[in-house]
């Protein structure tokens, strides 16, 4: 029973809950970034590259064949095009996230730059200031 209480205390800690929220929000943000890359950024890049699809690039080491029993033996290949595509995706995603974070930081800095108005003095402070001023006049 002590282990169950300890586990419950661990799971209810603030940092565990914060981490869980971060993972969930991070997953949703990842989907947004993937959509940005796949649906917005990659089509124009594909047009600029005349429709070259890097994922199709490969070096075939051994061609596919059929053995005597009729079993298909798949080809062995180095799929370097997929690696190139993943590097390009990484660069695009990193750049997109850089600009998103940069924009968020600039918005945060603008919020920080606005000085807070000093609070209005309370009624007691106003009365005390009036009394002080009256006492100064009597001297």
UniProtKB/TrEMBL annotation:
It is a multi-pass membrane protein. One of its GO terms (cellular component) is plasma membrane. GO terms for molecular function: mechanosensitive monoatomic ion channel activity. Keywords: Cell inner membrane, Cell membrane, Ion channel, Ion transport, Membrane, Transmembrane, Transmembrane helix, Transport. It holds the Pfam family MscL. Its main location: membrane. The keyword DNA-binding does not apply. Homopentamer. Channel that opens in response to stretch forces in the membrane lipid bilayer. May participate in the regulation of osmotic pressure changes within the cell. This is Large-conductance mechanosensitive channel. It comes from Dysgonomonas alginatilytica. The gene is mscL.
């Amino acid at each position: 029973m002590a282990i169950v209480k300890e586990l419950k205390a661990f799971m209810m800690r603030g940092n565990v809950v914060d981490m869980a929220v971060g993972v969930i929000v991070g997953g949703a943000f990842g989907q947004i970034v993937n959509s940005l890359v796949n649906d917005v950024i990659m089509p124009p890049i594909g047009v600029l590259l005349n429709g070259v699809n890097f994922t199709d690039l490969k070096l075939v080491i051994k061609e596919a064949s059929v053995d005597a029993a009729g079993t298909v033996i798949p080809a062995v290949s180095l799929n370097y095009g997929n690696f190139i595509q993943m590097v390009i995706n990484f660069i695009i995603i990193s750049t997109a996230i850089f600009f998103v974070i940069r924009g968020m930081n600039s918005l945060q800095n603008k919020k920080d730059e606005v000085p807070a108005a000093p609070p209005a003095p309370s009624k007691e402070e106003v009365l005390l200031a009036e009394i002080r001023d009256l006492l100064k006049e009597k001297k």
